[in-house]
Design goal:
alpha+beta; Immunoglobulin-like; four-stranded antiparallel beta sheet; 9 strands
Length: 379
């Protein structure tokens, strides 16, 4: 079994020297990038879980850590009362000097000793009334600043050649977070150890262990069990919502494009008049939004039709081509198709029939899943 100390030594030396909270920020940032860019991981719910923390918390926390490297304690009412009592005692002692005060020589005003004594008293008063950013304030500000920082990064990227896309956004947010972590580590190390901010995770773990396994009475034990069950249910609900997102409408996009002389694909400029034996290049597009990988078959027919009273009757049909395509969910497949009419005629209909799986023995517009058509005159 691997020892915890040996596993810790596997980490790079700069990462081991970081404080625990900053090291966790770096690790979560790197894991988020892995879940975004690694082909296997980016299809799992881990991408959403790490992405939420990466966007909503880490940039703000790293920024706050860089701004406030020192440990802060909020001034409570008890501290204010104690400070007031100390001030009253000091005032009373000054108005009623004791024998010890008389025995202790006072520095002569205007000398260096008098200035040093005044600085010591001011420092002691500031230390007793010091206020700063405590743990709860850091967490709250981290969420708020993250919500403000990430859109600003997106706004800056919008005016760059990279634009607002996945890779630039992920890279920029990760770079900002890591730079703030480096500044925070440098500023925190420069402070005395007693003044550095540190997350008391060991004290939290010990307190949680005592609450769970050493309750004071049965009521505390029941409340602890209820709390644990509630947290597990909440985590399970979030995990299920991420792993099994609700499905929207299931459909397949089916469209026909042509290519311009500049190589641009447009839904226009289809052939209208052709000669027998002439060819035209078209692109058949299939967009899968069926929430599963689907196999499609496209059948292309040249039809002679008769239209009477808004009713179209197929008099003759000739199959020109057919091809298969397997498309994953949320993916698009484009097939280049060469249209070559096999017989002359006026108002001939070229019909593209889309089927899921194998088409029937007699493909028609009525039994197709999707249908496209265009009209041509063949001379």
């Amino acid at each position: 079994m691997v020892d915890r100390r040996d596993a810790w030594l596997l980490l790079p030396a700069p990462l081991r020297r970081l404080p625990a909270d900053l090291a966790a920020t770096v690790i979560v940032t790197l894991l988020t990038l892995a879940t975004v860019f690694v082909p296997v991981l980016n299809q799992t719910p881990l991408r959403v879980a790490f992405g939420l923390v990466f966007v909503l918390f880490l940039p703000g926390y790293a920024f706050i850590a860089a701004l406030f490297p020192e440990a802060g304690t909020a001034v409570t009412d008890e501290d204010s009362s104690a400070a007031a009592e100390q001030a009253a005692d000091a005032t009373g002692a000054a108005s009623h000097p004791t024998a010890d005060d008389d025995a202790k020589p006072r520095p002569v005003p205007g000398t260096d000793a008098a200035e040093n004594a005044a600085d010591d008293e001011a420092g002691a008063g500031a230390a007793s009334n010091r206020s700063g950013i405590d743990g709860i304030e850091r967490v709250a500000l981290s969420f708020g600043l993250s919500i403000a920082i990430v859109p600003l990064i997106g706004l800056v990227l919008n005016f760059t050649p990279w634009g607002i896309r996945l890779v630039p956004i992920a890279t920029a947010v990760a770079g900002f977070t890591l730079v703030c972590v480096a500044i925070a580590a440098q500023r925190r190390v420069a402070l005395p150890e007693s003044e550095q901010f540190a997350v008391p995770y060991r004290a939290w773990l010990a307190a949680g262990r005592r609450e769970l396994f050493e309750p004071d009475d049965r009521v505390d034990a029941a409340l602890s069990v209820l709390l644990v069950v509630s947290v597990l249910l909440a985590l399970g609900s979030v995990g299920y919502a991420v792993a099994v997102p609700p499905q929207g409408e299931q459909f397949t996009e089916f469209y026909l494009l042509s290519e311009t002389s500049e190589g641009e694909l447009v839904a226009d400029d289809y052939p209208e008049t052709m000669t027998e034996g002439e060819t035209a290049e078209l692109i058949v597009g299939i967009g899968n939004n069926e929430y599963e990988t689907t196999s499609y078959t496209v059948v292309v027919q040249l039809q002679t039709v008769e239209t009477t009273n808004n009713s179209t009757t197929v008099l003759e049909r000739t199959e020109l081509n057919r091809f298969d395509a397997t498309v994953a969910h949320n993916e698009t497949h484009r097939e280049r198709h060469t249209l070559r009419p096999t017989r002359p005629g006026e108002n001939l209909r070229v019909q593209y029939l889309l089927y899921e799986g194998t088409p029937p023995s007699e493909p028609t517009g009525e039994n197709a899943y999707r249908e496209l058509h265009l009209w041509i005159d063949v001379e």
